[in-house]
Amino acid sequence: MLDLSEELHLFRRVLREYAEVKIEPLVPGLCAGTVDPVEVLRGLATAVGLGPGEGDGTLRLSFAYETTPTDDLAASLVLMTELARVSPGLALVLGGSMGLVGGTIAASGTPDQQARWLGPLLRLESVGAWCLTESEAGSDAFGSMRTRAVLDGDAYVVKGSKTYISNAPLADVFLVYARVTGGSDDGEVRAFVLDRSLPGLSTGPPLVKMGADESPTAEVFLDDVPATMDRVLGGAGAGGREAVKRSMTEERGALPAIALGIAERAYEVALAHARNREQFGRPIGQFQAVQLRLARMAIAVEGCRHWVHRLVRGPRTPAVVCLAKAHTAEAAVFVASEAMLVLGGLGYLRDGRVEKLARDARILEVGAGTTDINLLAAARYELGLG
């Protein structure tokens, strides 16, 4: 278990109660698209006192008490874990907007860009979408990138498309990566902060996915979108490959908390079922086959807790983040799948709870780099090659 302060233990208890009482009943509507995930998150923020930090221009969570930077990081991971216990997709909406887009602007944006876009993102007044992946540019995001930002006088024209973009149907702000054509940045990849209101920017309908339906995902189309110089993240000459790597590290660093939430909840459901479900005149938890499953599930859950703790306490190196993401993704898939087997027929039903967790867990092995890509990246970092 995380070594949390007394205040953060209270924060977690408040979060869990709110998530189970107020959010979990809304999950069917969130998945069907009849409930707005942003409104649900705004309600959560109001209820538990979430908001941006004061005065330092960094991405932080503030509470009704004093916190240290380590506490803020722990709080953000606790928040993702507790949301993921009831709605992994909703955790992805929040993480993609406030964490990934907001965090990238906080880390790399100019003061003017932070003043213009960061505050609204952190206050959930606007929603962000991080746009890197293309139909032909997934793991090879840089080498195969086709989206272009063509210099036209004193501004750019962005043309191309992005796919599998989380939050695209909801987003007001799009952080779009494109290869520059013309000027001193010719051939370099730069990030552009684009608003939905710009001419030529549109999104497709939500894609039908295996899970995480609370998090709408769609294509983004860029048909000669005008981008003035003030929309180049960090200003002319800033950004590029290293900035994207930093953003991906932050994204990967949040997913172990979601994995922990999925694994923890699936294990608790399976454990309760094993205690209460009777066959052959006794609870199924008394049979060794079930006990062995539960023991392996408990090991996997504790592994997730270890990695989340390591990410909070550090060192938070790129290699550690990649290893944490790869291991916890596999653990979440394993625990949710085993929970389905413990529940038997009930585990296969949509009303059985773990069926959804099992589907949702699979996104963790794909998003923010596949498990193989994260393992390879970790090895390269350890070898000093990447």
CATH architecture descriptor name of the largest domain? Up-down Bundle
How many domains? 3
CATH class bucket of the largest domain: Mainly Alpha
Cα shape: elongated
What's the main sheet like? 7 strands, mixed
Q: What fraction of residues sit in β-strands?
A: 5-15%
Provide the CATH topology of the largest domain. Answer: Butyryl-CoA Dehydrogenase, subunit A, domain 3
The CATH superfamily name of the largest domain is Butyryl-CoA Dehydrogenase, subunit A, domain 3
- Uncertain spans: 55-69
Mean pLDDT: 90
Quick one: how many beta strands? Answer: 9
Kindly describe this structure.
The protein has 386 residues and is α+β, with helices and mostly antiparallel strands. It folds into 3 domains: 117 residues, Butyryl-Coa Dehydrogenase, subunit A, domain 1; 112 residues, Butyryl-CoA Dehydrogenase, subunit A, domain 2 (Beta Barrel); 142 residues, Butyryl-CoA Dehydrogenase, subunit A, domain 3, CATH 1.20.140. 51% of the residues lie in helices and 15% in strands. The chain contains 11 helices and 9 strands. Strands 1, 2, 3, 4, 5, 6 and 7 form a 7-stranded mixed sheet that branches. Strands 8-9 form a two-stranded antiparallel ribbon. Strand 8 and strand 9 form a beta hairpin. Helix 7 packs antiparallel against helix 8. The longest helix has 36 residues. The two termini are 32 Å apart.
